[in-house]
Amino acid sequence: MSTVLAGLGLVKKYGSTTALDGVDVEVGERESLAVMGPSGSGKSTLLHVLAGIVRPDDGSVLLRGKAIDGLNENRLSALRRKRFGFVFQFGQLLPELPAEENVALPLMLEGMPRGQAVQQARRWFAPLGLDGLEARRPGQLSGGQAQRVAIARALVVRPDVVFADEPTGALDQRTSEKVVRLLASVTREQGAALVMVTHDADVAAHCDRVLQVRDGRISNHSPFTVS
Ligand code: ADP
Predict the structure, then answer these.
(1) Could you read off the pLDDT of 44-74 as tens digits, one per residue?
(2) 187, part of any domain
(3) Could you list the residue range(s) of the whole structural domain that residue 125 is in?
(4) Whose CA is nearest to atom 20 of ligand 1?
(5) 42 C-alpha to center of ligand 1: Å?
(6) Per-residue pLDDT, 221
(7) Is the residue at 208 inside a domain?
(8) Residue nearest to atom 15 of ligand 1 (CA)
(9) Ligand 1, closest atom to CA 213?
(10) Is 41 in the pocket of ligand 1 (CB under 6 A)?
(11) DSSP letters along the chain, please?
């Protein structure tokens, strides 16, 4: 399996707190990786460093073999928009825009005309079980529907990697299950890798591998059997 994203010897300190203490991690093509661990163990920091949002103090992040940490802020933010997709705990959809325009937004940010971007965005609604909800505003969607719109928005640029930070944190157990299953399967079908922070073992079980983080270090590297 070829490596899409790698973090090598990642160190990140906040004052006297060492959030990441020398982390090595690799994600392969179409692979899904769950990052678990107690609160404060460094999960979000790891996700943010891998996604080029936070720069490491030491170590390197490689996207398809190329270091991204040396890029200036403009190039790094362009890379994040084009090559990465993001799903957060609370979808972070823009409340005043219909669902289809929320999904189209990353394409418009890349300069695609609105009509064309919305047309492309609409193609994602049926595969995500959102048929007929294109014109709804986020306030008119259930929590699970809103997260599926957020998944469509993450995938619309056809990213190399989707990063998800507690994507089911605001959902009930049954909806969580459905949303994470869809997130893992659609991401894989699109040929993207998935890096997902979650505190929920049932959610993590939908990923190919689980990484346990403790005190800024990886405490396991074992394969995980998908149930
Ligand atoms: P987790 O996601 O596992 O809860 P975090 O990565 O958020 O852990 O945090 C790891 C450690 O780094 C914690 O001790 C946290 O308080 C600290 N930390 C994270 N972000 C910051 C920040 N922006 N400023 C100061 N300390 C931070």
Answers:
(1) 999 999 999 999 999 999 999 999 988 999 9
(2) yes
(3) 30-40+73-223
(4) 45
(5) 6
(6) 57
(7) yes
(8) 40
(9) 3
(10) yes
(11) --EEEEEEEEEEEETTEEEEEEEEEEEETT-EEEEE-STTSSHHHHHHHHTTSS--SEEEEEETTEE-TTS-HHHHHHHHHHHEEEE-SS----TTS-HHHHHHHHHHHTT--HHHHHHHHHTTTTTTT-TT-TT--GGGS-HHHHHHHHHHHHHTT--SEEEEESTTTTS-HHHHHHHHHHHHHHHHHTT-EEEEE-S-HHHHTTSSEEEEEETTEE----B----
Task: State the total domains in the chain.
Answer: 1
pTM to 2 decimal places: 0.93
Q: Is position 66 within any domain?
A: no
| pLDDT at residue 222 in the model | 52
CATH code, 90: 3.40.50.300
pLDDT (0 to 100) of residue 220: 80
How many residues make up the chain in this entry?
227
Ranges of residues in the chain whose predicted pLDDT is under 70: 91, 221-227
Q: Is residue 57 part of a domain?
A: no
